[in-house]
Prior knowledge:
By secondary structure, the chain is mainly α. It has helices spanning 3-29, 32-48, 55-77, 92-128, 141-173.
Amino acid sequence: MSTKGIGRIIDRIINVIDQISIWSGKAASWLIIPLAGVLVWEVFVRRIFHPSMWAHDLATQFYGTHFMLAGAFTLCLGKHIRTDFFYEKWSPRTQAWVDAILYVFLFLPGMVMFFWLSWEFAAESWDLKERLFTPGRPPAYYYKTVIPVAVGLMVLQGISELVKCIRVIWRRQK
C-alpha cells in the first residue's frame, strides 16, 4: 500500500473519531433543555407549593452528563483551557511536538487510567444497584456509567489529536 493510501486511511479514521466527538457533544448539548425545564419547574413549584425531592437530583444528573459528554467535543474544537502565552508564539511544528509529547506522556496515560478506574466504579455501582444519598434516592448507576463513556470518548479524541500532531510533524520534515 502506498503512502498516499495509508494517509487516506488515517484521514478517514481521524474524521470518524472527530465526527463521533462532534455528534456526542451536540447530542449532549440538548440536555440543557430538560435541565432548564426541571429548574423552571422547581422554581415555579417552590413558589406555589413545596419543593420537589427529585428536581435537584435530576438537574445535577443532566448537567453532569452534559459537562462530561461535551469534553471530547471541546477537545476536538481545541477549546480546552491552555496557558498559551508561550505556545501561541511557537511554529505549528513546535506546537505539534509539544502537544504530541503531552498527549503521549500525560493525557493518554492519565485518561486510560481514568477510564479503567471509572469502568470499575460504574460496574460496582451496577452490581450494587447503587442509589444516590439524596432524599429522592434515584439510581446512581446510570449516572456513573456516563463517566467511562465520556472518558472513552476523550481517549478516542486524544488519539485523533495525537495523530494530527504526528501528521503535522511528519509533513513538515519532508
